Amino acid sequence: MLDLLIIGGSAAATAAGIYAARRNLNFKIVSKDFGGEVATSGEIGNWPGIKKIDGLELSNQFEDHLKSYGIEPELGVWVEKIHKNNDGTFCVTTKKKEELKRGEKMSENGNGSPVCDYEAKTVIVVTGVHPKSLDVLGEKEFRRKGVTYCTTCDGPLFKDKITATIGGGNSALESSIMMAGIAKKHYVINKNPQFKGDKVLIDKISKLENVEIIYNALTLEIMGEQFVTGLKYKDTETNEEKQLDVEGIMVHIGMVPNSDIVPNDVKKNEFGEIVVNTRAETNVPGLYAAGDVSNIPFKQIVIAAGQGATAVLSAIEYINRLEK
Ligand SMILES: Cc1cc2nc3c(=O)[nH]c(=O)nc-3n(C[C@H](O)[C@H](O)[C@H](O)COP(=O)(O)OP(=O)(O)OC[C@H]3O[C@@H](n4cnc5c(N)ncnc54)[C@H](O)[C@@H]3O)c2cc1C
To answer: What is the pLDDT along the chain (324 residues), one digit of tens a residue?
Structure first.
């Protein structure tokens, strides 16, 4: 039985791991991958102490920092569900990368109870978010064949092509600003009559010569053969259906928290974020959440890391109370 299981492998998990190691907890970090969104963040200029650093490099430094405490996160582990045992401890079921490839299902005991891959007195959930999909025809089919949800990662693949970003917030604006420097021409497809993002980004984008903004444009379909060749949208002012020839589509329409793994009685807000208090405690004793998966405002690396540290300190107090 572990003192603590940390689920996730990025900013919040790293801070949690460092604090847990320094307090000699018997713990593990398990995650699908290491780096999470930090690794795909592009240039980062707001991590204190480092004026400018590439996201991938910062995540490598996070990994090195953990290694310096002898911590090797178990990667390729996909947590399926956290179950609360009757004695208040936790049973965590997972799928490993190989099982996922084979499409195997979670195994159960004869009595229907799950077979635990990890058992722990406390669990910290730091699983972040994933991009929302458009749910339109062709989106699934052309995923990684011209449709991407990470412009920082895949944008350079579309050098000198005609591309489009779908979305109207900061992430869509940043994607479009980046693509303006890579693509021959770039469209911004915004379903609303205006952007929701920061004024500084809106001002910047309106000055870019190879960027065309299309407002009131509801995406209907992504078209292609082997790869994307275009998109269809409805002009919601005229109800007219229109088509654009594009070879790359960046979808930036929001994020969904990776919060399905928590027990069903854990409180979430309307966005599916895990509700925590200022001590990173959920409503279930011994279960904590931190970083982007939680309801903390402002999804930022420094905030996720701070909250990861808070979660461990709270977990230590909880364990100490159990042992009294
Ligand atoms: C393009 C972009 C640019 C950004 N730029 C900045 C910036 O300049 N400055 C800044 O402060 N912030 C920036 N951010 C935000 C920042 O990246 C996030 O706030 C931060 O990464 C959140 O960290 P986290 O630890 O909560 O989660 P994440 O970084 O999202 O990591 C979640 C981890 O959990 C793992 N995981 C998820 N589900 C499971 C599961 N079921 N089982 C096992 N593991 C799981 C994932 O594999 C991943 O390792 C940017 C984000 C994006 C997308």
So the answer is: 999 999 999 999 999 999 999 999 999 999 999 999 999 877 888 999 999 999 999 999 999 999 999 999 999 999 999 999 999 999 999 987 666 665 655 555 555 677 899 999 999 999 999 999 999 999 999 998 999 999 988 899 999 999 999 999 999 999 999 999 999 999 999 999 999 988 999 999 999 999 999 999 999 999 999 999 999 999 999 999 999 999 999 999 999 999 999 999 999 999 999 999 999 999 999 999 999 999 998 889 999 999 999 999 999 999 999 977
Which residues, judged by CB distance below 6 Å to any ligand atom, belong to the binding site of ligand 1? 7-13, 31-33, 36-38, 40-42, 44, 46, 77-79, 126-129, 152, 258, 261, 291-292, 299-302, 304
Q: Which of 7, 33, 38, 307 best tests ligand 1's pocket when mutated (most atoms within 8 Å of CB)?
A: 38
How many angstroms is it from 8 CA to the middle of ligand 1?
A: 9
Model confidence, pTM: 0.87
DSSP E strand stretches across the chain: 2-7, 27-31, 43-44, 53-54, 74-75, 77-84, 90-96, 118-125, 129-131, 147-148, 162-166, 185-189, 211-214, 217-224, 228-235, 240-245, 248-251, 255-257, 287-289
Residue 289, token pair as written in the block: 């959440």
Tell me how far the alpha carbon of residue 163 lies from the centroid of ligand 1, in angstroms.
25
